[in-house]
Amino acid sequence: MWFKRMLIEKESPEQFGYDRIKYNLTESSTTDKSLSDLGIKLGDDLLLCYGDHYGSVGLRELIAKRYGADKDDVIVTVGACMALFLVYNTLLKPNDHVIVMHTKYPANVEIPRSLGCNVQTYELKFENQFRMDVDEIVSMLKPETKLVNITYPHNPTGTMTDAASIEKLAAACEKNGTYLMVDETYGDLTMGERLPHASNLTNYGICVESLSKAIGAPGIRTGWVVCKDKTLMDAMIAVKEQVCICGSVIDEECARQILERNDEIMSGIRADIAEKFAILCDVMEHQDVLDWVKPSGGVVCFPRIRPEIEIDTDEFYRVMNEKYGTFVGPGHWFDQDDRYFRVGYAWPTGEQLRKGLEGIINAVKDTRKN
Questions:
Q1: Beta-carbon contacts of residue 294 (< 8 Å; ≥ 6 apart)
Q2: Looking at the structure, do residues 104 and 181 belong to the same domain, yes or no?
Q3: What sign results for the dihedral spanned by CA atoms 167, 170, 174, 175?
Q4: What angle in degrees, to the nearest 10, is found between the helix axes of 249-260 and 262-285?
Q5: Are 239 and 336 in a shared domain?
Q6: Low-confidence ranges of the chain (pLDDT < 50)
């Protein structure tokens, strides 16, 4: 068992230095919020004690309500990253068979790989509009498959699936005795109705979510796992206790206050995203060097430099970064060719977004060889 630094974190803007980036299109969340932005008030009498190991009762009740679950079906974690870590480290041992949707946030792949698991990836393809073929995933199931992992709305492509597909996959996993973990980190950023929660479709269903992406509050480090399998939940809390015992009572109080006003807060966020999405679509529709799959959820997309364009990708990124001050998430963060890159369109201001997108396009034009 061993862990290595993921490039998406090693090369992240917070490690590179926000002050060195003019147009930051690497972020995969909405604009970062302050305590005052979110109306959070922390009293002087907040006791800085060890908290409930599962997470504060008030917070878990609010999370459970969102999922049609009970508070005891919820474990609060230090961000969605810890939620993924808990699930993988509880369920898996070396050589276990795991199916992971790919490409996606690298931790979903790197954690089981680091645990010595037999990781089989289901590849999302640009040529298929990054659509999930449920029948293909089901055909990959083996008697020894312990876990299937998918993400919707999807990161980094911004694509969606439908309720029927989730229901069909959940039924197949249950029949096979396989857990289905759905990373719903962008759930509140679904364009239209949210998908059904896997935790309501089968006792083998596991949901993971956080307040980092939709709300824009990654600094409070609050996520959660929802699952109705009591035995699994007991095992996961044992892992959490050995990692951190409990979460921060300050973070969990902030999260509780956010979820109390979640609909109100999200209303303003969705309006802001709509304006920026319109800018994204306008720029992409009036250029001829990039291909893309128009996103239908979340706040990211995964365009590529058109295949017919000859280009040195290293030079492209250098010019984009140094001449145009624009930064994106390069393809190698997601085990893809660097002709692909993730664009986060909700974090910057509208003007910064437009300038950044123009910087990408101009960098392609400056460095193309044909």
A1: 281, 284, 301
A2: yes
A3: positive
A4: 80
A5: no
A6: none
